[in-house]
Amino acid sequence: xxxxxxxxxxIKDLRPPILDDLGLESAIKWVLEKHIGERGIRYAFxxxxxxxxxxxxxxxxxxxxxLELVLFRIAQEGIINISKHADAGNVEVxxxxxxxxxxxxxxxDGKGFDAESIYGAFRKDHHVxxxxxxxxxxxxxxxxxxxxxxxxxxxxRISAHVPVPA
Length: 166
Ligand SMILES: Nc1ncnc2c1ncn2[C@@H]1O[C@H](COP(=O)(O)OP(=O)(O)OP(=O)(O)O)[C@@H](O)[C@H]1O
Ligand SMILES: [Mg+2]
Hints:
Blueprint: H1 2-13, H2 17-22, H3 24-35, E1 42-48, H4 51-57, H5 61-86, E2 90-97, E3 101-108, H6 115-124, H7 132-141, E4 145-150, E5 156-163
Parallel strand pairs: 1-2
Antiparallel strand pairs: 2-3, 3-5, 4-5
Helix pairs in contact: 3-5, 5-7
């Protein structure tokens, strides 16, 4: 079990080359196309500002790179969750690169779930898997927040907010 945890931690810490090759926005779009578009599910991807602009203003390039990785992992997990669990017809991802923060939202119109009971139970068991719980912990280390809103029958909305010190 300890070893399994170690391997999971390593997978989470690895920086996928696609992130540096394509940049954050295109890397997320690639995940959308691969897991959603290729399955015949409609998706929209919308951005305001760019990660490049914000990176140029960021106080610490190293911190910015960590933050990009966490946002990429959240998007990847959220999108793969949609492909595995949601049975959605439409997926929307939006990213806003503001003056001093990044906001990202991942929405689906699928079957939804009882987020309170599932994530509440995981937290009580100290379950830190590759799922969104671990992502929430990692974004909070960067002073960010992760909110998962879902209700059975009403789709799911994941919101991430993370400050970028200029
Ligand atoms: N977009 C979604 N639509 C419907 N149900 C979802 C969605 N995202 C998550 N869920 C539900 O929440 C549960 C927990 O998700 P989580 O990502 O933590 O674990 P998992 O996807 O089952 O496993 P892992 O991510 O470790 O492979 C899922 O099993 C599923 O029941
Ligand atoms: Mg998952």
